[in-house]
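PROTEIN DESIGN WORKSHEET
SECTION A - STRUCTURE
LENGTH: 147
TOKENS:
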């Protein structure tokens, strides 16, 4: 039995630090639903191997994702996401290391209506301190026509 992957899953237990990162991005215009399915399939296949869990929300052309796991693995995944042509105008909303249990122990994909993702973005806008983040969030909200 291969125990090498189990060590990666030990992150996030009490007294261990988890790296969590939250981002949003604009999907490439006219993104095919099959591409969304491919993103989910790839995430479900690879993320558990690297001890990464989280929540992915997609709606009205916007991705919103919470990632948590070992710092190097989360940063490596974010680098790949940033280079993925299906994501435009990627904005990191929050990033930190915390000693806690995982908030999202399972990988989920939730399809949401524009108003629901709008609420998430409006809350992020209220908490954003970086001017570039604020501008990008306003752009996303305008894309939804709810700003």
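SECTION B - SEQUENCE
RESIDUE ASSIGNMENT:
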């Amino acid at each position: 039995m291969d125990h090498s992957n189990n060590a990666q899953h030990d992150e996030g237990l009490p007294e261990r630090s988890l790296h969590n990162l939250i981002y949003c991005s604009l999907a490439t215009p006219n993104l095919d639903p099959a591409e969304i399915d491919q993103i989910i399939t790839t995430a479900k296949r690879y993320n558990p191997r690297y001890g990464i869990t989280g929540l992915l929300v997609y709606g009205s052309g916007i991705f919103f994702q919470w990632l948590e796991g070992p710092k190097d693995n989360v940063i490596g995944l974010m680098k790949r996401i940033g280079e993925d042509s299906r994501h435009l105008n990627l904005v990191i909303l929050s990033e930190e290391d915390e000693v806690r249990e995982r908030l999202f122990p399972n990988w989920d994909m939730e399809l949401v209506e524009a108003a629901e993702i709008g609420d998430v973005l409006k809350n992020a806008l209220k908490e954003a301190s970086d001017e570039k983040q604020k501008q990008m969030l306003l752009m996303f909200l305008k894309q939804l026509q709810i700003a």
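SECTION C - NOTES
DSSP finds five helices and five strands in the chain.
The beta strands are 17-27, 53-59, 62-69, 87-99, 108-111.
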